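Protocol step 4 of 5: obtain the predicted structure for the target chain.
Materials: sequence only (see below). No template structures provided, no constraints applied. The aim of this step is simply to have a reference model before the mutagenesis design in step 5. Sequence pasted as it appears in the construct record:
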Amino acid sequence: MFIGLSVILLAFVIFINIADYSLFTYKRNAISKAIDYAVTSAVQQINKNESLIGVANGFIEETGERKLEGVEIDIDMATRTFLTVFYENYKIGNLSIDNSLLICATSTQNEKLRYTIKADSQLIFEGELENSVLLEEKINQAITQYWCSAKDNSQVYLNGNPKTNMLENGSYLLAFIKDIKIKGLYSQRNVNLSSFAGAKLERQ
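Step 4 output (C-alpha cells):
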C-alpha cells in the first residue's frame, strides 16, 4: 500500500509540474505575440517633419529598390503606440510593462546608422555608428546602465556574426522588456523578451 501511495503521489507531483510549466509557456507565448504586434504597429510612427526628404526619395531610381535613408521614427509616439497595442493584445492578468520597456529606434543618414535608445521616456543613448553590427553592444550597454542590477542574461542578441546581422542600416524599432514576471500554476518565473521590426512605407 505504501508503494502504491508513493506512486500516486509522484504521479500527482509530475502532473502539477507539467501543468505549472504549461501555463507559464502559454502566458509567455501570448506575451511574445503581443510584443510582436506592438512593435510592428509602433515602427510605423514616422516623424514626418524629419522625414520629408527621406520619404520623397524613397526609391533608388536605377534599380527601383526601396530606400529608407532619412526616414526618422518618432520614438515617443512609437513608445505610446507600443504600449497601447501591447495591452490591447495581452489581457491575461494584470501585467504592467511600462517601467520595464526599453525602445531603440534607428535610421540611416549619409550611410551611417543613427540610433536613439529610451526607457521610461528617459534618453539613455543616441548617436551614429559606421556599422549596424555595433548596435547590439550599444543596446546592451543601455540595458546595463538603465538597470544597474542587470545580470548577464539581460542581453539582446542581434548578431550571429557580421554576415548574419539581423538589423541592417535602415529605419527599425527594437523593443526589449526586462524581468517580465509570469506566474504558472504555483511558481513564478522572470523572463526577458525582445522583438524588432522595420518600417514599411506606403506611398500613393
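Step 4 remarks: Residues 52-56 have pLDDT under 50 and may be disordered. The longest helix spans residues 2-42.
Proceed to step 5.
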